[in-house]
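Objective 1b of the project was to move from sequence-level analysis to a structural picture of ligand recognition. The entry below was assembled by the postdoctoral researcher (A.K.) and checked by the PI before modelling. It contains the amino acid sequence of the target and the SMILES of the bound compound, pyridoxal-5'-phosphate.
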Amino acid sequence: MRHPEDELAELESASLKRNLRPVDSPQLPHFKVNGETLLNFASNDYLGLANHPSIKAAYQEALEQWGAGSGSSRLICGSLPPHRELETFLAEAKGTSAALVFSNGYATSVGTLSALLQKGDTVILDKLSHASLIDGARLSRATIRVFPHNDLTKLEKLLQSTTEKAPPHSRTIIVTESVFSMDGDISPLAEIIALKQKYGVLLLVDEAHGLGVYGKNGMGLSEHLDCSSDIDFHMGTLGKSAGVAGGYIACSQPYRELLANRARSFIYSTAPPPAQSAAALAALKLIHSDEGTQLREKLWANIRYFSELTQSPLASSAIIPWHIGDSASALALSNKLQHEYSILAPAVRYPTVPRNTARLRITLTAAHSNDDIKQLYHSLAAS
Ligand SMILES: *Cc1c(COP(=O)(O)O)cnc(C)c1O
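Corresponding predicted holo structure:
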């Protein structure tokens, strides 16, 4: 029998062991970690909504009105007004006829792909797709094909060979992200849509890092590129820019009903706390409002400022990878920033990213000040 101590020692010696960081204050740009006050460049709370007074107020109000928990799965007796209102808003914002809300993004990916696909179907994923999408694909027992990151030529080859021999009634779906979670770059959505249409297949786009960051109303890269109506499944999380928690799929009404009947992470799981959904709805409405536009402008001003300081091309999103290579060096730099400069910029290593592409994953938010960003830049320059 394997001993866990041996497995942990192996991870440690490969600089791949992870440790939970005890955070002792709310998720803010300056926060307390293990007794130290650090400048936070690790959070996905891109607009600073996790501690926004009106989102907290919406949470409190819904808590009073609807209670702490949902009591059961949505399908039994847990389908409460905050869930339904959130779904109505999401469908409208995404321009689809329906939406379905899950407890989080991970449950959304896993539940959706495993419900949509079965043996004989094919899922074609971008190589850098999030673990939750890969896990959903695996669970479905469909054939999994992977194209190199954003490589349209290879994607088309896979579409050709798949659709040539696809059994009748089988489903083929392309899965990609709008903004990639570890590289912060964006996908060529318009070109992928052209291919999806040419080969008559489905498309799922995960907007986990696009929501709140892109689009006139902050609804993501698909809104920014004006291609929302060509996407079959809009996926996202309400735990990043929206600052709360939850996951969603916006899609057609029949697909929504199919998911509600087949997605096991939806069916066999207690519905999200109603107050969580109410707070997420308040966050989406804020993202849609003038205040949301201002927060998005501040976020992009921060992204521009950091790109200027580092004399790099303008970053494509709030996620800025600081490439290192080997895990030990990435970890050493992250530790140095933390202990000498009080900056949290975590090292991201295998298996989250491919081997030998370890990096610091720096995230900027609208809540950072110019001074915060200058401090980050000077610390990196001195390290
Ligand atoms: C974070 C993330 C998810 C999972 O969302 P959670 O709500 O955190 O479970 C899914 N996809 C991508 C691309 C993500 O970055």
